């Protein structure tokens, strides 16, 4: 049961990362963010198909390299937001980007740690929560018209 739930969580996250890459189409820095989301989409899709892939050296190297880049990006965006943010982080494009990088980093960490031992208990509950969070956030943002009004045009016209 836990193994199926872990695979399903990875399938959800692969879908989320794939959708996040797709909505970058009209962003000024679309190339960067498409790669940022496409790499974990592919890595998590592989985990959903074959969870033991996390033992593979190539998979681990790609995961580590991408995670390191996301951590650096998280620090840079956090510093920028600390200096310039004027309100709710979801109202700032950099805030949404920051949350995306944090989600990627957390998920890649969960995937990487699953190679040592199958996820169960608290880690599996954390995986379910993290897998549902992006979809709940998108639903909240979609329903909250006030939040979308302050967004730049390229964010409003993507969907």
The end-to-end span amounts to 36 Å
The major pleated sheet works out as: none
The class by helix and strand makeup works out as: mainly alpha
Number of helices: 7
Radius of gyration from CA coordinates: 16 Å
Low-confidence segments: none
Overall pLDDT score: 85
Encode the helix/strand succession as letters. Answer: HHHHHHH
Overall strand count? 0
Quaternary state of the chains = single chain
Sheet-strand content, in percent, reads under 5%
Shape: globular
Helix proportion range: over 70%
Verbal overview:
This protein has 7 helices and no strands. It is globular. Helix content is 77%, strand content 0%. By secondary structure, it is an all-alpha fold. α1 runs antiparallel to α2 (30-49) and α4 (93-113) packs antiparallel against α5. The model has no long low-confidence stretch (mean pLDDT 85).
Tell me the layout of helices and strands:
Blueprint: H1 2-22, H2 30-49, H3 57-84, H4 93-113, H5 121-143, H6 145-149, H7 153-156
Helix pairs in contact: 1-2, 1-5, 2-3, 2-4, 3-4, 4-5
Defining key terms:
159 residues, mainly alpha, 7 helices
Brief summary:
Helix content is 77%, strand content 0%.
């Amino acid at each position: 049961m836990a193994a199926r739930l872990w695979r399903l969580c990875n399938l959800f996250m692969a879908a989320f990362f794939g959708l996040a890459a797709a909505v970058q189409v009209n962003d000024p820095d679309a190339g960067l963010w498409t790669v940022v989301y496409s790499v974990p989409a592919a890595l998590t899709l592989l985990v959903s198909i074959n969870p033991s892939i996390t033992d593979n050296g190539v998979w681990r190297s790609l995961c580590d390299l991408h995670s390191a880049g996301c951590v650096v990006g998280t620090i840079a965006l956090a510093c920028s937001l600390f200096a310039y943010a004027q309100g709710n982080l979801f109202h700032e494009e950099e805030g949404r980007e920051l949350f995306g990088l944090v989600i990627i980093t957390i998920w890649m960490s969960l995937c990487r740690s699953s190679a040592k031992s199958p996820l169960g208990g608290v880690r599996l509950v954390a995986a379910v929560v993290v897998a549902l969070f992006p979809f709940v956030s998108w639903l909240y943002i979609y329903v909250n018209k006030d939040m979308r009004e302050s967004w730049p045009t390229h964010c409003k016209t993507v969907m």
